[in-house]
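User: Batch of two.

Assistant: Item 1 of 2:
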Amino acid sequence: MMTRRNLIRWIAAAMMIPGLLVTSASFAKTEPLSGAAPDFTLPLAGKKKLKLSQLQGNVVMINFWASWCGPCREEMPLIEDLFQKYKKLGFVVYGVNVDANPQDAQALLKESGVSFPVGYDTKNKVSQLYSVDSMPSTVMVDRKGNMRFLHRGYKPGYEKDYEKQIRQLIRE
């Protein structure tokens, strides 16, 4: 027999579930963005640095990732494939690693064979500048330096959305 206290708990739990479902369902995989992409400079492997504004005139995918992030590891080779496919058309990937220790990231990069530039945001200043709240996060920037799309997280199939957006932005 259910006590009054247990009934109240059950009702409260049942009322919370629809709210959780709405919250997670409204968390879109692609969100439109507008406005200029905030400029930043990060150190690359070696002693070089890369400033985002140096890439203006290209379509830029800024991909925030971490070596400890499983979906990031899954997504990385797919982003490399897109980079190789579209780089001759003015597409660039700027990877932004958020690991506190760049050596953790470098081990993954070596393992995955990534060839696009990766900057090290060890103090998470660029991540804060872009209000990154999930790993991976990807911002698509048009040739004029304007943010156009935001992707939070990664699930298989998202790369198809990336490719559609890359093609759209290259044609503009």
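Item 2 of 2:
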Amino acid sequence: MKMKRFSLTLLGLFVILSVVLTACGSTPTATPAQQPVATEEAAQPTSPATQPSGGKQQVEVFSWWTGGGEAAGLEAMIKVFKAQYPDIEFINAAVAGGAGTNARAVLASRLQAGDPPDSWQGHAGQELIGTYVAGNQILPLNDLYESEGWLKVMPETLIPLISQDGKIYSVPVNIHRANVLWYNPKILKDHNINVPTTIDEWFAAMDALKAAGVTPLALGEQWTKMHLLETVLLGTLGPEAYNGLWSGKTDWGSPEVKVALENFAKLLTYANSDSASLSWQDASQLVVNGDAAFNVMGDWAEGYFRELGKTPQVDYGWAPVPGTSGTFQFLSDSFVLAAGAPHPDGAIAWLKVAGSKAGQEAFNPVKGSICARTDCDKSLFGEYLQSAMNDWATNTVVGSLTHGVVANDSWKSEIDTALGLFVQDGNVNNFQAALVAACKSSGPCK
């Protein structure tokens, strides 16, 4: 009997201590305890979100959105989440740097250690299917799609890119365009230069700018050069042959590909000499500050420009990368449910917001992207994004290399290594030979 009273006393003290700690606003660590990888059946969460007794409801969401319109857009969606799920603590586990390169390295280490975040950012396409699905690291979400009615409002072009064997593995939150040429309208006007529509016109414009002492092209660290490369491949080859690079129908060793690589090599000669030390934001800012004429970057740059207080058609203008008019080179950010998620119900709550109309309408106008959903209010978006909506609906659509759509991680890594060597030595023949080898090693060119 004494032992029972003693146990009850300890229990009472524990409850009091828990209340005090909650009132003081103590914050749990952002790194959950290691979890074994769960089977699909064992790990399926329940809905609505609940949490085992004795622990505060949480969700840890991992991304690389840490700056510019990206971070602001994420915060806007988190605000919607907190309004809908005030009892779930949101842990923002974003990691900065390299368009996700740093974050994905951290994520890979955590997954290998059996320490997954509840949900993480992944690009629709081969990055998702060839990495996380192949590694049994994420769970299918068909039941969520059915309960939320998402198949009625998500583009048909997206679903196959996030599916395998009839199972849907992520929730897309946006559509981005990769093949955007940003330019400074005042610089072009002052030098009597029209916005180029072909690669040859682009070269002529940059020759004139270079002769006038203006930096023609702003570039940043290596991934921004891969981003430029994929748009030049598209602009030189056209959409059908570009798609063939990733299916095996277009020969990486062909004369046509060599012309594309020579165009890329020539473009690099117009760029700022300090590109290796600049982030994409730094390079983009050179254009809106009037320090460079052109920059090729995805339309997340537009969210960054607006965050800087810049005015469209005054501080910056846009056009398809020369040679790519009528083609929309896309990528899509999405979020997944981890196998063995420490807080699976919190993850489901987050995914519901990420796929919702309210969540996407809060996120995308700030991020500088358009909704993955087809029913968002167009009036919420600015001039550029409305033009992107129109192009997405009417253009030929192809996928991005840099941002995970067309190549698996192994193939992309080999291309990146070849690109790094080319940036150092400038040898087009060696570069092309390395790209041929990469396709044979990790792509469809067996």
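DSSP finds 18 helices and 15 strands in the chain.
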